[in-house]
Design goal:
6-stranded antiparallel sheet; 11 strands; SH3 type barrels; 0% helix; 107 residues; elongated; mainly beta
């Protein structure tokens, strides 16, 4: 059974430690097995590629590398600051995530 994470694909997060500290970005992908996420514009690496159908020239491309989820915090939709999240039972018995700082529901 996989555990629940505080971050989902599409969330806006802020990096709380490391070289990209205080950088905001949108989560593009979450890997539950390794507890890592790919965040837009964060942890950029240069990858050397051979010529192929996508890039007939080949060369060096920049792309995002995964970052540890423990180094990310959710951004409050109301205030725009970082916040912890909580879970509570909503309508129809479903768990909904909410911001601990403002109480705002997180979609």
């Amino acid at each position: 059974m996989q555990k629940k994470l505080h971050i989902k694909k599409g969330d806006t997060v802020i990096v709380i430690s490391g070289n990209y500290k205080n950088t905001k970005g949108r989560v593009l992908e979450v890997n539950r097995d390794s507890n890592r996420a790919i965040v837009e514009g964060v942890n950029m690496i240069k990858k050397h590629t051979k010529p192929n159908a996508e890039s007939p020239q080949g060369g060096i491309i920049e792309k995002e590398a995964p970052i540890q989820i423990s180094n990310l915090m959710l951004v409050d939709p109301k205030t725009g600051e970082r916040t912890r999240i909580g879970r509570k039972l909503g309508a129809k018995g479903k768990l909904i995530r909410y911001s601990k700082k403002s109480g705002e529901e997180i979609k």
